[in-house]
Amino acid sequence: MAVRSYQSDGSVHIAERDIDNIQDAAPEDMLQEIDDILGDIHTKSKRGTIVKRLASQYLPDFDMNNPTDSGHVQQLKDGQTDAVQLASYLEQSWSNAVDNGIYGHYFGDADKDAVQKVYKNIWGTDDQEGSIDLGYIFWTNKDIKGICTTPGTEKVGDSITLAYIGNLVRNNQQIAIAHMCDQGYDVPKRSDVSCDSLGSTVSTLMDVLGAIILHEYTHFDRIGKAATGTHIGDKAYGPLDVKGLSDADKLINADSYRWLALEYYWTTVCGKTFSGPRDDRDNDESACQPGKCIVQ
């Protein structure tokens, strides 16, 4: 299992930039497939036959007869469950997260209601599939932006993208298209990380694929902007640098939500208090070496 970590000096870290041209990157046949799915959802809704909740959508470019593709879909599904459960741990015991001080590591006191709403918008009271809004995220197996790196070709100084997401509107519906690069699938799932492996400080040893997916969810305007009133972007990355932001920037920084969720989850599950991240020792990333990992 690869050790997941990120450096605060920028040499190795999760970084993410807003994507505003995902519709231009998506091929027309993909957009048509999405339109067809949205049309089917609308038809079932009018007939009263739509399921109560929608899981994230997986486009047909995942070949379910291919063991690699089907395995990746299962990882994304497991990651969605982990993301939802990370959010539910916080949302269902919010006052405890505030009172024990972990909330204050990542956000300002005045923003408690908005931050809680972001997690609520992910969880949606369903511990397995989460909010119905997650059903409007379409995962594609195609690197439509052409920014992923072929495993084994990473070089010193390269930025290695783990995943990316972008908002767009189709059929009058706010949706998002997301893609996980090959290196992203190396991030462990929650059940593969043990308390004994985490050490005593907040670090990227806590990292799980579900937390990266949760990070992506906050960028989806049905989730993040619906709670904060402003699109959630990226101001800082990793457990160390997010703490140095102003309160205003923390509210609209995706990795702040990721690290609050991770610290609170592992503190609760492991029954121990973790001290704050020290320096680059708690931010190293090996999966993308000799490059640096980013998430867009």
UniProtKB/TrEMBL annotation:
Q: Which cofactor does it need?
A: Zn(2+)
Domain Putative peptidase, first and last residues per copy: 44-269
| The entry's keywords | Hydrolase, Metal-binding, Metalloprotease, Protease, Zinc
One GO MF annotation is: metal ion binding
- What's a single GO BP term from this record? proteolysis
Tell me the domain of life: Eukaryota
Q: Which Gene3D superfamilies match?
A: Collagenase (Catalytic Domain) (3.40.390.10)
Enumerate the PANTHER family for this protein: NEUTRAL PROTEASE 2-RELATED, PTHR37016
The record's comment on protein family reads: Belongs to the peptidase M35 family.
* Name of the protein in question: Putative peptidase domain-containing protein
Organism, by scientific name, is Cercospora beticola
Q: What is the lineage of its organism?
A: Eukaryota, Fungi, Dikarya, Ascomycota, Pezizomycotina
